[in-house]
Amino acid sequence: MSCLAASRPRARAGDIRPLACFLSAPNNLEGLRIKLAELIDHVASEAGVEKNAAKRTIDAVLTGIVNAARKGEEVNLAGFGKFKVKDSPARQGRNPATGEVIEIAASRKLGFTPAKQVKDALAG
Question: Where are the beta strands (DSSP E) in 1-124?
């Protein structure tokens, strides 16, 4: 489906726009810090669905990413990027106030690497 075919005001259930439509099209989110409620509003209006459906969808996506990360799995969203768990080993550090050597515990962090399409969209 092309971006133009999917750009009607209220998309029908089952219509899916390619990710490239969102990366190339101007939108009303530029320059803003997005909160979850604003993201839900945006998804609801762009997809032509009710806010409750958009919230359930976003919650399901985020829960899926977190559950996969807990298992140590990589989540690859084609055209968007990869979420990957990174293990940081325990190490020594210094307390900046006192200069005292302290132990920093090992940890797991969720990293994100954007896809080329996203990098290109951000570059201009």
Answer: 75-77, 81-88, 91-94, 101-104, 107-114
pLDDT tens digits for range 19-39:
555 444 445 555 557 899 999
Helix (H) or strand (E) run with residue 22 in it: helix 19-24
The structural architecture, per CATH, of the domain 19-123 is Irregular (4.10)
Cβ atoms of 53 and 44 within 8 Å: the answer is yes
Cβ-proximal residues to 64 (8 Å cutoff; 6+ apart), any chain = 75
pLDDT, tens digit (0-9, with 9 covering 90-100), for 98-107: 999 999 999 9
Residue numbers of the chain with a pLDDT score lower than 70:
1-32
- Residue with the two structure tokens 């977190």: 66
Domain coordinates in residue numbering, the chain = 19-123
